[in-house]
Amino acid sequence: EDLLSGPKPLAGLKAVVTSGPTHEPIDPVRYIANRSSGKQGHAIAAALARLGAEVTLVSGPVTIADPAGVQVLHVERAEEMRDAVIANLPADIAVMVAAVADWRVASGSDQKIKKQPGEAPPPLMLTENPDILKTVGHHAKRPRLVVGFAAETQNVEENGRAKLERKGADLIVANDVSPQTGVMGGDRNRVQLITRDGVEAWPDLSKEDVAERLALWIAMQMAGAPA
Ligand code: CTP
Ligand code: CA
């Protein structure tokens, strides 16, 4: 309540947020992508802005509207998302929510690939995409607070911890995206906050409420941490 009265707790701070999927082209009409509505990432960008942060949202292709009070950069591919994020450093806070495609097609075609009657389907050669969170977490201009997400279907805590270390993040927001949870594409989320201090499990909440609480959690951290 204290944080909501008086001056806005994130005033004067810059945040960069990624959201949505990336689309990795196979040819001009086809792509590889992860499932992601962008709902959680967009809600977090809006919540940080409501607390006074100057927010840049780097969004992959989504069907939802740009959130209010936020500068939105629209990108398609992981490499474009990485470039847009890096171009927006220095920042005080990074929250990487996007469901980045782990792989892209090694050599995409400029022309539509046609079916060849009687021939086998074309093989797809994949190459690994840059890890945007890991790049930010180890960057010379690393933000003071680096937050990642971990979409898991099993061993949520253990996998989240490993990601925290590997990517140089301060917080991993881990969620169970097994089909039966309805998190993917839905309006609700149940997350665990994984830091070096331990794990905090939040109840089942709307994605809006997760965003609100996470923005407040971030504001607490920024208030406590040395400038
Ligand atoms: N992430 C990223 N760039 C990538 C892959 C992931 O920035 N190329 C970020 C996501 O935005 C998220 C975090 O890393 O904040 C974890 O993403 P996730 O897909 O769960 O982890 P991966 O490292 O890709 O591992 P895996 O998919 O094998 O579980
Ligand atoms: Ca991944």
From TrEMBL:
Reaction(s) the record says it catalyses: N-[(R)-4-phosphopantothenoyl]-L-cysteine + H(+) = (R)-4'-phosphopantetheine + CO2; (R)-4'-phosphopantothenate + L-cysteine + CTP = N-[(R)-4-phosphopantothenoyl]-L-cysteine + CMP + diphosphate + H(+)
GO BP, sorted A to Z: coenzyme A biosynthetic process; pantothenate catabolic process
Keyword Lyase: yes
Domain DNA/pantothenate metabolism flavoprotein C-terminal: 10-219
Positions with a binding annotation for CTP: D102, K112, P130, D131, I132, L133, F149, K163, K167
Annotated region described as Phosphopantothenate--cysteine ligase, given as residue ranges: 15-227
Cofactor info, note text: Binds 1 FMN per subunit.
Gene Ontology terms, MF aspect: FMN binding; metal ion binding; phosphopantothenate--cysteine ligase activity; phosphopantothenoylcysteine decarboxylase activity
Cofactor(s) needed for function: FMN; Mg(2+)
Enzyme Commission number(s) from the entry: 4.1.1.36, 6.3.2.5
Job of this protein: Catalyzes two sequential steps in the biosynthesis of coenzyme A. In the first step cysteine is conjugated to 4'-phosphopantothenate to form 4-phosphopantothenoylcysteine. In the second step the latter compound is decarboxylated to form 4'-phosphopantotheine.
Family affiliation: In the C-terminal section; belongs to the PPC synthetase family.
Protein name: Coenzyme A biosynthesis bifunctional protein CoaBC
Species annotation: Rhizobium glycinendophyticum
UniProt lineage: Bacteria, Pseudomonadati, Pseudomonadota, Alphaproteobacteria, Hyphomicrobiales
